Amino acid sequence: MGCASSSPADEAPPAGTVAGVFDAPxxxxxxTKNYNRPKWKSPEPITTSQLKKKREEFWDTQPHYGGDRxxxxxxxxxxxxxxxxxxxxxxSAGIIVAAHDMTVCYDERGAKxxxxxxxxxxxxxxxxxxx
Length: 131
Description:
- With 131 residues, the protein is α+β, with helices and mostly antiparallel strands.
- It has a domain at 29-34 and 44-117: Bacteriocin As-48, Chain A (Up-down Bundle).
- Helices cover 34% and strands 9% of the residues.
- The protein is built from five helices and five strands.
- The strands form two sheets. It has a three-stranded antiparallel sheet with strand order 2-3-4, with no helix packed on it.
- Strand 2 and strand 3 (104-106) form a beta hairpin.
- Mean pLDDT is 78; it is low at 5-32.
- Pfam families: UBD.
- Residues 37-129 form the DC-UbP/UBTD2 N-terminal domain.
- This is DC-UbP/UBTD2 N-terminal domain-containing protein.
């Protein structure tokens, strides 16, 4: 006996549902395979040192957002790594990426981890620090 909203396994889930986000149709591939660093623009141009400080503040305060410290550490390492290493870190930590740009992730227990775009990539309007 299924629940009222269940559907046969051979049917694709409705568009926009969480089930459709985690797995590509017909595969067991997680979205980390299609992970792209987000492209974004800061409301005001930001320097490299300002961005670094903003990232440090986020990672210093992330334990207050809940979740597992080990998952946060894996996410931080993944954000700072190249794309291939990022995929390895995400997969080995058992992190489920719910958004293709990695802004929303879950651990295996269902805890949600939201990452701001500024920890994932540099803004398009990044300015170099004045010497």
